Amino acid sequence: MALLDDIAEKKRLLDKARPLPMRVVTDIADRFELELTLSGLGVEGGPLTAAEVKTLFQRGSPALRNRDPAMQRLALNHRKALELMARLSYQPGGIVTERTIAAFHGLLYAGIDEGAGRYREGPLADPDAVASPDPAKLRVSMSALSGWLRRTEPSPDAAFEAHHRLMSVRPFAAGNAATALMLCNLLLNRSGYPPVFVKADDRILFADLVERAWSVGDKTPYRELMMRFLDQSLELCLVSVANGFPDPTDVMEVDESA
């Protein structure tokens, strides 16, 4: 319960500080753009560093020597997918469906995979995948997920469940992990929370718990890890808020009517 209490208190402080000064909004957006891109690459096995991703963002095209061009393109595509996520986050009345999921994947893998945005017809592309859900059941499973999304109100638990359900289906030949994080973060944003990201030190544990939640049905460790990621994201926001005020203690005293 201590973690849940911490999350509730950090969310309260963040809400109290709103509306945020533009310099704080920009700082938070820049921080999350980098962290989320590194996370999206990381869960797909990408080896790029923060410095390399910044270079790609500055140049706007694959320009790194001795780095996989496809992974460089994925980093740039991820930025475009984040722009879509941001637009959809400000449309709380819009419906999130399997078309939303396909749109995320289509942006992420544009120019990389001919199957971008389309469901796979065979096994997963990763030869090391523990399991490959039957492609014959994909459309039924995705239709069921789409129906569930229509009926579900955005919340952290709904976001984590949506991630779990999409990773249980794995509808695309490659890129399911990055796409599932996009879906998760869209629902988090719509419920008033910041997005979550997976740091390099947590990637193996994250992959193991995602797999455990699907293979044996034990979602508790997975949910606890996702809540820790959410706490991490709220902390990032509060640090930016504190740095954006003349006196860091102002974040505790900010006028709610501002």
Automatic annotation (TrEMBL):
InterPro entries: Fido (IPR003812), Fido-like_dom_sf (IPR036597)
The protein, known as: Cell filamentation protein Fic
Pfam families registered for this protein in UniProt: Fic
Alphabetically ordered keywords of this record: Plasmid
Fido domain location: 96-228
Domain of life: Bacteria
